[in-house]
User: Fold these one by one.
Assistant:
Number 1:
Amino acid sequence: MHQYLFHIGDFPIRMYGLVLCMSIFLATGVAYFLAKQDGRWQQHILDIGIYGGFAGLIGGRLWDVFFFDWDYYQHHLLEIPFVWQGGMAIQGGVIAGVLAGIWYCKRHQIDWLALADIVCPAILIGQAIGRMANLLNGDAFGTPTGSNFGLLYPEGTLAFKTYGAVPLWPAEVWEGQLDIVIFALLLLFRTTDHAKGQAMCLYVMLYSAVRFGLEMLRGDYVEPFLFGLKSAQATSLCFFLTALGFFLYFGWREKHTEAVPQITNKKRSKK
């Protein structure tokens, strides 16, 4: 972990912010590659990346503040913008970024669902690199492993402040690695004959399943939110079930749409 790259006078240049910005830039670059490879809308990707990036930063911070740490921030409102302390929720960032992308697509008459299918693997590149930022900053950490295995965080990090010099589960590292696995699975899925919208739904389902499981190891917040589940687990479960419903619906809709012209053609041939 290395929180600071260097200082300009008393002003620190933090690795967290630099790596977070890099995650947005590289995710946008991968999205451009995927869109250009598909042959549609690549000229809009940079603008969508800018709007989605800014919206994602705001959404990620507000999601963390209000869903995870409101007990603290309701008494420290001036610290809400202090993102370098840790506290950027990926779920809120993705939702806000996607909503900004949908808004942009509506303005420019782009089929946002088709575009989401094309570029959704790029989101995972941003998430994986974002977890590197968490590791460098010492946040999004795990609970104590109770053994010699685990990550040791240095003084000055939130992890050290919470648990001290004890080995913690590498929750953020494993999540970043699993993001790359999901990235590869989505690329493979896109080579299959799937209905429009299903790739985006699969992304939501796979990431939600990973996040639900890894939350059992997270130690930056441990209070139950709903039915004994942490807040991220509750939202992950909701996202998974919603995405599964839409995944099945999109598949049914495409089959139904293909069946209608066939029936119509048969009627015409009889005439």
Note: The chain has one domain: 4-270.
Number 2:
Amino acid sequence: MRAAIGRWLLAAALLVPTAARCAAEFEPVAPGAYLLSAEALAAQGAPAETGNVGLLVGDAAALVIDTGASYRQGREVLAALRRATGQPPRLALVSHALPEFLFGAAALQDAGLRVVAHPDCARLVAQRCQICLDRAIGLYGAEAMAQTRVPVLESSGAGDWQLDLGGRRVEVLDFGWASTPGSVGVFDRASGTLYAGGVVLAGRVPMLRDADFDGWIAALGRIARLPVQRVVPGHGPVVTLDAVAQLRAYLLELEAEVRRLYASGASLPEAVAEARLPAYAAWVGYPELHRQNVHYRYLAVEREDFDAAGTPGR
């Protein structure tokens, strides 16, 4: 065990960036609970579209939650991890299958760290993330994405499970198909901190492309029933359960508006143009992502209508 820890520390040391710039740091949000913000990672260089990284530290080990958007950002995570704690990481967990949270995984794996995900998440990454990587290279350039590869993620198994970090037992919550298939969160009851991954976004319009709408609503409802003091979202600052309620309200208001327009006979282009929710217009991504969400929900409502029409007796 000591030899394995020594190898990890040596590998991590070799990966520490040497550029003379202000390093990205894990900042405490509660005793033993930390956040390396997306903004701090992006400040180190492209990709600009990246997600928050969490860290929970016990007496014997640490857990990393999400990994950054590139190999270079994964190296930044490793360097920040060494500065934040002397405890060896037990493993890293990818919370959901979006590029800004998983493309740093290869750097962690090369340093000897296991990276796990829900089996549905791992399967989706294997099926489609080469396309995501090719797109990122085209967007940010080969230099920014150098050494980045699609990680092979270990399956953590389905269902809720616990991890003992030594005097700190954390809970991995299986939200099922919510924001993406195999969405998970990590709840630290000791501090009341929930790392919600892609299931919670703060001040940002959610993306419904890969979501199960009802599953997402159910996941937010489950979170609201937990004894949570603070939520670390996949994007945005640390928030309270009020932000969870706001995200749920957006989804429900979106659904109600799309169904109203569909029932009135509006076409898909008309619904996309008319389904405005001004209460959320200041959220990041509203002009583009909200229109996309209207598109996805309209098609879902239309399919539901067609299926109902084709059911005998209805």
Note: The CA atoms of residues 4 and 112 lie 8 Å apart.
Number 3:
Amino acid sequence: MADDPKNPLNRRQFLQRTFAFSAASMLAGCGSGINYATQGKVDAVTGGTLHFIALGDYGQDGTPTQQTQVAFAMAAYVKKWNLSPSALLMLGDSFYGSLPGGAGSTRWQTQFEAMYPDDTFNCPALAIPGNHDYEVLPVSKYEAEQQYAAETQGTRWTMPAQSYRVSFPDVNPIVTFLCLDSNMPNEPAQPLPTGHFYTMDDASRLAQIQWLENELAQGTTAPFTIVLGHHPLFSNGEHGDNQTLIRDWGPLFQQYKVPLYLAGHDHDMQHLEISGYYTSFAMSGGGGQFLYPLPGKRHGGYSQETYGFTHLQITTEHIIVRHIDPNGKLLHKFTKLLDGTVQM
């Protein structure tokens, strides 16, 4: 049959049609899903600069209704403002639940390739592992993600190592991303269930600290260096602050004046300015998995239990961070200037 999905020539088209039909059905039934009490506004995006779309905690298990809604909002947002993202920033927890077949799982097509299609997001997807990516269900999802990046021809999924560095553009870069593995052993803020979870060992933790310090000390010609990790250092969310990251990474962020750390893990959207820190801390954990309640603010700033994604607009003078909800409305916005000043 011409539409046989087993035919490799038709498989991509079949998956996209099937995904679009399923997503449209889900979106038509939004009333039975989530009630978005949007208090934001449409925020016009102007300026010919670099653009990045970030999201975390998106790999919804089962029927990915909320993940689909956020993905559609991302695509609509990019098209509305005629953006050409330089990269997707995938902040971890890419697959909740099992990943049967590992790098050969059909979930790669339905929940990555077709979910964030390359006709809209024609750019690399810089991926880092979250704690759920460290599950073994039934194989190591982290190893499967690295294998998929290495062996899948034409994929945008990018995970070349535990820690890696990417700059944009290649010539005369404006921003450098340092992509880290934040899955720390024996971290009280992320107690590990028995059984299927694991984390890096202590030798790997120490090696990564040395790598991070070397990269920051080496510097870059780019005006801005942004660090990506799944777990936040500071959070108003359910998991709270991560004392291991505060101890290991916090002094380096301060010493080398890292302007922005972007994370997920808590299923909400946040922006915290911590007294004594040069770094701004932004969390984008509303990519699709069920939301977490905010138990009470440990820190000031913006925190909201909502789905959404984050848009980074970067020039040689500033970073604009926008949290956007599934209706394309602005939840929160701040600007980090080259001298470290924050404007809201």
Note: The chain is about 25% helix and 20% strand.
Number 4:
Amino acid sequence: MKLRTLEMKLERVSGIPNPDPVKEQYMTSAPLAARLLFDAYLAGDIEGCSVCDLGSGTGILSIGAALLGAGEVVGVEGDARLVAIARENAEKLSVDCRFIADDVKSLRESFDTVVMNPPFGAQSEHADRPFIDAALRAAPVVYGIFNTGTMPFLASYIRGRAEITGVVSALFPIKRTFSFHSRDLLEIPVEIVCMRRT
């Protein structure tokens, strides 16, 4: 499957109704999700692999992994209402994904690859850390979306457990969603980061 084809398919994934700003519930855009997944696919970390999507929201990364031929896909999301939407999205795109309503800290299964768009910690400091910890426990390779400028912290935080083996710059489009948003569209510079356990 070509990158653009994947992107077009992911445009069909329904977003987050009444998102919670404290939980930083922002929908990952189809182009950004497709870019992360396609990079992981080209590296051999999706097709035929068991893939876990931490903080899966309405399932865009899970569904994309399944479309790219993942052997097993599990999405873990703490908000049960989003799990229900993710299941509907997977059915709409005719893919097989298992979605679990649970805190990422409770994850005990092992996978080949983790994909995730964790909270950046803008509303709740260090909100990304439980995701990083859970990801590195669950799989030897992790692809995540992080705020640009996070790399020094991330490299330090994972030292002794993993190393950063790839970084791709991208933009995270955020439409006006909450009362504190002052613009119709804000594009946040982000980095798609690949971490591999050492």
Note: The helical segments are 3-10, 30-42, 60-67, 80-92, 129-138, 151-158.
